[in-house]
Specification:
Ankyrin_rpt-contain_sf; 356 residues; Ankyrin repeat domain-containing protein; 4 strands; mainly alpha
Length: 356
Amino acid sequence: MKRLKSSLVLISISGILAIYVLTIHGHEKNNPAIESEPSLMLNTNPSKKLHDNQRKMTPSHPDFILSSDLFSTNETKNEPDNKIESASFPPAQVFQLIKESSAEDILLFYKKHKTDINISLSGSIQAPIFHFLLHSNFEVAKKLFSLGIIDIDKTPGAVKMAVFSDDPEILKFLLAAGWSPDASTEGGMSPILSSIFLGKLDTARFLEAEGADLHGIFKDKNALDLAVSSSRMDTQTLDYLLENGMRYKPEHAVDAAMRGASVSLSHLLANHPELAATQKNDQSLMDLAVAGTAGVETIQILLHNGLSLTEAHLRATEKRVKGAYIHPDTGRELILPQDRKAEELQAFIAHYLAIN
């Protein structure tokens, strides 16, 4: 039973990390799917060759008293500590450290390995352990901060991690402690834009009230650009963005149709029905939706707004059933394994053509 509970908690943390990767990295790469987390291997200053002293985890007793054998040492002889920019440990061991250690244990571990607790774990996540403690062990995170060892300037991504949590007290704690509501990792999506992309309207309103910039830009995209492409969107968030002066554009219709973002597409066409005539490369929104990743709901919205289906669309679904689709950003044909919406869409179009 204990093993089952540990597995379930690990799955929960993995989900949070996956979302974190998506908003920092996955969305930047315009990847429609979240890639698997890479192993968090040791990675310090690349100009120095490190010793690989990874050892098998052998807890001293079931209560998990930290020992130097639990993690890989990240020391390099004669190298100043300030040259080390990142360090990480095997994921399973990091998980155990986060879930089962006290603030004192964690501090002791970093002291033993002469490593700054504020430096990032390497790999695609690129965040200090404090970020993950906020979600998984908030009391320990607060204790570490109270000890005066958490550097606000070195942990800007903490605010974004709080956005991913469903506990508003974490965000309130960070802002009260001195973190900026706009604090984010270099080149990353700001906390308020992340909250919009994740469909967390209450969080976005709170951050704006605290001084966050709703009109910030991420990769040439504003909040509405990001919202339109999000599968987590709702009409209240879209109304909020329009009330704050943002406006729909033809490219929003294309993006929503190709991605099958039915809530965004319905809201957009309700406010601007003329955008139903939008085309890209001489292809209608219906053409783009069928070739993209849209499902039946998106097609029904387009039918309701005056577009039609043809035999060509039915033939296009054959590619979808085989896993081929058109990427909404690059226009390239890619393979999407297990497109569960494709067969349903094919059946819907076949039925529609049979009765019309």
